Amino acid sequence: MSGRVTRFEQSATQGPTTVDRIHADEFDDALADVLEGPAVGAPLPFEGVSLPQDVTRNPTPRELRNARIGVTPVGPAVADLGSVVVRSGAEGAEQISLYPDTHVAVLAASDIQPTIADAITEIGARVASGLTSAVLATGPSGTGDMGSVVYGAHGPSSVHVIVLEDR
């Protein structure tokens, strides 16, 4: 699995995405390092990890518009592409990942799949268990329509992935 995490990190950081590899007991400090301004978040389903009190859960549309940081769980991920899957659902992870300037994606190392084919197989299994919608994201959105590439035209301008490694 360590090879998958390394490959994911290499692929993701080829663009303007940053990746931290940590253990669950280091999560609070790692998140504090990237939190600034108003933050919104979706529940994190990882053992030993939770959102701090100053991160708004179940944000209103106004709170989403005003948020600088959005924290969501993601997975599976694709090592070869540095992509993550943001699942849609009642908890609002998709909106929370798109509206704020920075998306902080929290990913279990065990959810990193080697290839897109492997990730599609995993997504298929989740669809069979009730998943109805998801977005495959590879870093912040970018456009070069006006010359040089501009990030954040259709989503966050920066993405920070926190990979939770097993001990």
From TrEMBL:
Domain LUD: 55-164
PANTHER family recorded: LACTATE UTILIZATION PROTEIN C
Name of the molecule in the record: L-lactate dehydrogenase complex protein LldG
Organism the protein comes from: Halopenitus malekzadehii
Taxonomic path: Archaea, Methanobacteriati, Methanobacteriota, Stenosarchaea group, Halobacteria
